[in-house]
């Protein structure tokens, strides 16, 4: 698997699946979540509302993932995952790791060969960029070892230069 990091807008990336740093309601929010919902158009919200009506009446759990179509995005799929919120005491790195590994499994199940991730839980959820980068890169590498050839490429698409620097440094080790 090829793993890279770049600065950019995840809603414009040409990949099979993008990962959304969602909240448990799946009904949109701020940051990456809000940008993805805005770029995908109203059908994404309708698909998420249908998930809430049917298979996820209590919302999506921390570390879990679920896919919807990408609708108006360049990506065919949006894989929604809920990162741990340090401000709520969710400090276990295993929860953060699960966001990445579970999302890759969901993406692979959707036959996605290329996947783009944001820095799940960095920013408003209180995790330091260096910690997110380390957990994310380690999780992706370990998942690839257990699932060789399931996904060809993972791109970490990061909004700020500071977070990009953290991911780039981690990828070099």
TrEMBL record:
<dbReference type="Pfam" id="PF01661">
    <property type="entry name" value="Macro"/>
</dbReference>
<protein>
    <submittedName>
        <fullName>O-acetyl-ADP-ribose deacetylase</fullName>
    </submittedName>
</protein>
<dbReference type="InterPro" id="IPR043472">
    <property type="entry name" value="Macro_dom-like"/>
</dbReference>
<feature type="domain" description="Macro">
    <location>
        <begin position="1"/>
        <end position="173"/>
    </location>
</feature>
<dbReference type="InterPro" id="IPR002589">
    <property type="entry name" value="Macro_dom"/>
</dbReference>
């Amino acid at each position: 698997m090829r793993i890279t990091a770049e600065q950019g807008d995840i809603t414009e990336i040409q990949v099979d699946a993008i990962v959304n740093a969602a909240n448990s309601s799946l009904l949109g929010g701020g940051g990456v979540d809000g940008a993805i919902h805005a770029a995908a158009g109203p059908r994404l919200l309708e698909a998420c509302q249908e998930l809430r009506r049917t298979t996820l009446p209590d919302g999506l759990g921390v570390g879990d993932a679920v896919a919807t179509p990408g609708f108006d995005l360049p990506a065919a799929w949006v894989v929604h995952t809920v990162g741990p919120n340090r401000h709520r005491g969710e400090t276990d790195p295993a929860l953060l790791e699960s966001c990445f590994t579970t999302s890759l499994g969901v993406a692979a199940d959707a036959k996605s060969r290329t996947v783009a991730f944001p820095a799940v839980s960095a920013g408003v959820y209180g995790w330091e960029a260096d910690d997110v980068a380390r957990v994310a890169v380690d999780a992706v590498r370990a998942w690839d070892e257990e699932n060789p050839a399931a996904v060809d490429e993972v791109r970490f698409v990061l909004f700020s230069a500071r977070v990009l620097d953290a991911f780039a440094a981690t990828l070099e080790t």
